[in-house]
Amino acid sequence: MIRIATLLLGLAVAALAGSVHAQAPIKIGVIIPATGPFAIIGEEVKNGMEMLFAESGNTVAGRKVELIVEDDGNKAEIGLTKAKKLVERDKVQVVSGVVASFVAYALRDYMVSSKIPLMITVSGADGLTQQDAAPNIFRTSGSGSHQSHVLGEWLYKKKGYRRMIVMAPNYAMGYEQTGGFVRTFKEAGGKIVKTIYPPLGAPDYGPFLSSIDTSTADVIGVVFAGGDAVRFVKQYAEYGLKGKLPLVGSGLLTDDLVLQAQADAAVGIITALNYSRSLESPENQAFVTRYVQRYKRIPTNYAEYSYVGARVIKEAIESVKGKAEDSVALAAAMKKVHFVAPRGPFKFDAYNNPVNAIYIFQVEKQGTTYYNKVIEHYDAVSQFYPWGAKAYLAKPKYVDMANKWVD
Amino acid sequence: MSFWLIQTLNGLSFGVLLFLLAAGLSLIFGLMRIINLAHGSFYLLGAYVAIAVAGKTGNFWLALVAAPLAVAVVGALAQRSLLNRVADNELGQVLMTFGLLLVISDVSLLVWGGAPLTLEKPAALEGSVQLAGAFFPIYRLAIMAFGALVALALWLFIERTRLGAVLRAGVDDPEMVQGIGINLPLVLSLVFALGALLAGLAGALAGPILGAAPGADFAVVMLAFAVVVVGGLGSLKGAFWGSMFVGLVDNFGKALVPELSLFTIFVPMAMVLVIRPTGIFGRS
To answer: Which of A89, A342, B241, B282 lies deepest, with the highest CB count within 10 Å?
Structure first.
């Protein structure tokens, strides 16, 4: 008798568990640096993700969505531990976020073997959607060199520049983002006269800047991000180089995170990127308005990247009718998602990197605020522009080319 | 010609900032025998407070006075309420300063956010001057002049005043100093506050050049450690010449061989350690 009762109880518990499972929330892990120098980017990532799901009442395909935010402390090993915790203990259906490239690389193999989709919304390390691409690894920001390819060509053809000095921090981000425009600039016929790679976070650019001989070049192409970008742009003006040698660069140089702090020193700088809050499309205006309402500040590109990443996840969950536990089907659905994002039309290429417009911006001042004005745009640019995937992947990697550009 | 002139000025102006940092670090070590790991946090706090004050009042000079004082108060409070509790335990004190570093950096993140901020220069120091055909920022010339004044004032204070004599005596023989009726714990608090004040001053002065952002505390304090290793811990003279040396070597290293720029600071440091483990002006 007791046995039968136990059996019945067991059955009831199992049935109950089954029904709970059907209504269990979909869990999405968000790995961000919440402390350290990239904390502000981490916050933007979290905001973008939160905002998108909040707009649909935190419910997708009839199931509640729950974000589980983890701090990677900007360290690779902590990031990996947090990813394992999210996948194995919290049983999340998607892992997203990831800012630093070393964290992204540390997660890669584990995420590939877990089959759980990894939606990278910031890290630009080229390899993750090139040589090391995988069916369950996605990126909504773009690979490091992706943004830069159109710029080098444009500088040569439209601005008539022929000789360039290159300056960037001495690690992968710097090499990839400058490498992109250097390669197309050289292939168009331009020459690189000098490359300078200061250490990451160099407190003072004075010595590097005052060793530049402006008579040898007609443009300087750089990339610096965050606090480095603010110091670099201000010091460039202080050392009398602004106005003497045009300053151009990858979009992070004057993105919306740093532009107001750079102020007048940034006016006139030309950059290339896939997003700025100043884009005039109705999709973007609506996004900016809602973001400002919700967070009382203007969104940066990092918020847009994560908002777009969240939307890809949401639409994929809808197209698998809420069955987010089937990781392979979910990843396949994510790959097919396409829509008009705040940045413009968005879809993935065969390597799960975005295909989107790249804008050439120039910094202007309007009243007391500074903004990136669109002066040119290239539609539907893939990371392999203009060569195509096969020809591009046959070329040496940018990190290996960094010290070989000078003619 | 202009290249060498500008690079030398660069190195000296950076050296002055390093001196303000290293002098505080060195003074604290001299008297308390601990490495203050939170010294970079005091620097960053100085920059943040200066930016906040300048933002509210629009007055750079007020910010330059208020920030070091505010940081000195924080330093004094930290010393009296935390470090004092583990006064006889050097390792405990160092760990305490490490805890302080973490707390200050997270509180700054909470208060000022993570976006990089800069301090606006006063209009009078805006712009550049032309020297031998090259541009040099006026603000950096002002830093050099100001730093020289501070160095002189510090030297006069330590060598020529009664309190300075007590400090020197405290470094040499703390027990004897207490034996003749001087309140050494009070002197320790004063020195800790003075060290914090100098670091805060460095932060405020560097605000328009280096700005304030999370992580700046580490970047700068590393260089200050290099300075005190080269110059010798606990000696003001050592901090001064060490700063000039590191400022210049760092600068010419970056300008001439940018690929080796970290190497050019830490290799001379390692060589000094091998040849004179106490630093050039340090006493064993």
So the answer is: A342
Q: Which residue of A has its CA nearest to B120?
A: A261
Q: Which domain holds residue B249?
A: 2-275
- The residue type at A394: A
In a domain, B107, yes or no: yes
Q: What is the 3-state secondary structure (H, E, C) of B136-201?
A: EEHHHHHHHHHHHHHHHHHHHHHHHCHHHHHHHHHHHCHHHHHHCCCCHHHHHHHHHHHHHHHHHH
**CATH T-level topology, domain A7-143+280-352:** Rossmann fold (3.40.50)
Q: Which of B128, B136, B255 is the closest to A207 by Cβ?
A: B255
- How close A398 gets to chain B, by Cα (Å)? 17
User: Please, are residues A252 and A305 in contact by the beta-carbon 8 Å criterion?
Assistant: no
Complex confidence, ipTM: 0.77
Sheet holding A63-71, edge to edge: A59-60, A63-71, A26-32, A94-97, A118-120, A137-139
Q: In the block, which residue shows the tokens 């914090």?
A: B196
- pTM above the 0.90 mark? no
How many Å lie between the alpha carbon of A51 and the closest alpha carbon of chain B?
Answer: 20
Spell out the domain ranges in chain A. 7-143+280-352, 149-273+357-401
Quote the pLDDT of residue A5: 57
Q: Which residues contact B275 (CB under 8 A, 6 or more apart)?
A: none
Distance CA B66, CA B53 (A): 8
Q: 3-class DSSP state for residue A39? A: helix
| pLDDT average, residue stretch B49-77 | 95
Q: In total, how many domains does chain B have?
A: 1
Torsion of the alpha carbons at A293, A297, A298 and A303, rounded to the nearest 10: -90
Confirm if A310 and A67 have CB atoms less than 8 A apart.
no
> Mapping DSSP to helix (H, G, I), strand (E, B) and coil, where does residue A167 land?
strand
Residue B281 lies in a domain: no
Instruction: Calculate mean pLDDT across residues A311-340.
Output: 97
